[in-house]
UniProtKB/TrEMBL annotation:
It is a multi-pass membrane protein. It comes from the Eukaryota. One of its GO terms (molecular function) is monoatomic cation transmembrane transporter activity. The keyword Hydrolase applies. This is Sodium calcium exchanger protein, putative. It is found in: Membrane. Its main location: membrane. GO terms for cellular component: membrane. It comes from Ichthyophthirius multifiliis. Keywords: Hydrolase, Membrane, Transmembrane, Transmembrane helix, Transport. Residues 52-191, 409-509 form the Sodium/calcium exchanger membrane region domain. PANTHER family: MITOCHONDRIAL SODIUM_CALCIUM EXCHANGER PROTEIN, NA+/CA2+ K+ INDEPENDENT EXCHANGER.
Amino acid sequence: MDQCSLQFVKNQQDKCSFVQNYCKNEEFINFIQLYYCDMNENIILLIILSFFVTIFAFHLLSSTAEKYLSPSLSKISDFLGFSQTLAGVTLLALGNGAADLFTAVIAGGSQDSEGIYIAIGSVFGAGLFVNTIIFGRVINQSNQIRAVKHIFLRDIGFYTLGTFIIIVYTLIGFVNYAMAFGFIGIYIMQLNNLFFLVKRFIKKYIAFYNIFHNIFLRFRFITVVFFQEWQNKFNNCKFQSFVDEKELQYEQYQQGFQIIQPSEDIFSEFNGCDEPFKTSFKRKSISNKFNQNYINLKQKIKSTFTRFDLQWTEMVWWQKLYFIYELPINFIRDMVILKTEGDKWNKWQAIFICFTSPLFILCYTENIQSQIYDIHIAIVSLIFSFCLSITVWKFTHLSKTPNNIFFFSLLGFVNSVIFISTAAQILVDFLKLIQLITNINKAYLGMTFLAFGNSLGDFFTNPQLAKMGFGIMALSGCFAGQVFISYIGFGIALIFKTQKQKYNNSFNFSKKIQAWYTYKALQWIECQINI
């Protein structure tokens, strides 16, 4: 029986010494010792600590994933030559669901014997919250949604299948390596199914005009930026009047978040286009662009809410407080992660990061003093960084992004994972303190506290996307992201947890938790059926 529980702690004379001896499962910060030894069980201080810890951790999770991890993954997928479909359902899905994914993995792979229950609770809770509350808000904010029936049935079907498998695992009472890897294998089955559907889709709709028209009917929204890329191909089309109309609509949208309602048949204006243009489409899946647009739009919506491009004197008081709070966090991240998208390239920052980013990784992994053949790794890192910095200084433009920045994208990915993992670990450690004090089931805390906190970004941005005309995009973000988190995040957590059992390579579910999870899973399935 775990001695680090409220039942044992409250009966101790010296609670501080007791938790120092028996409550050592924390990976990053031991909040239990902090509360009992340094804060003297002061509830007021605990409330203040709870407020700042949750805001800091959830903000670090979401902002790092959106501003740093997702752009790096997009560049990596381009360099590796991933197909658009493969990138959309793997790397970009990872960028969009990084907060939930790493929280589940860290909770499930922690030294705490019941950490896996936090992981299960967070996965179920996030799915319940996103696919009920957020899903309902998206539908409410959308004027009209034309969904593709078989795509939504596929996502819901795979998600429900994962829920049934977890029920089976809990009823069996244990999980081994084969069962853990099999859980991830189901996601690979979904990828194969998706590739088959995309291949069939491209064969059926090879003409550019038909595919482009299909994309437009799904997204119901057109920006001037997209059409200006193709304006040189519309020499024989009635295009300029259309661009002027959309520029006016886009300006109105930027000023007040007004809903843009494009015409029903926009391609009637392009009847004068010649056939070679209509058939010049390069056949690609739209999944990568779809997911990247989804992430970029979420960033734009959040930046519109904060509007930190304003001058200091024009900010209201809460914007000033948020700016002051975010300034040191952004400064630290910008010292080790280079923003590679758009026009954010900075030559001198890149030279500086050539040194700081590898050293930051060595410090985090505690290898800064390690040696290889009596040579310090830090010295090797500095030599490599010096050569790389000379290359950047000699062959790159001051503000124009180079064509090949794979190495910086890779460093950005690794360091983004470090920041996200740290924030997730802080949340899990703090959750253990809350569970000890309140004696609430860990799975219930994961289903509420972690799940709702990680889903707050989607709670605000997805309905706003629907209001702007991106109803299908918002709905797909609700389901596809949760499928990825459930199979990959929880699957990796199962593997880590199984690996920690040194004898039979399996771990057991308690009888009490079996009944609890079965009940909650059936509740979740009932919600899916109602949807």
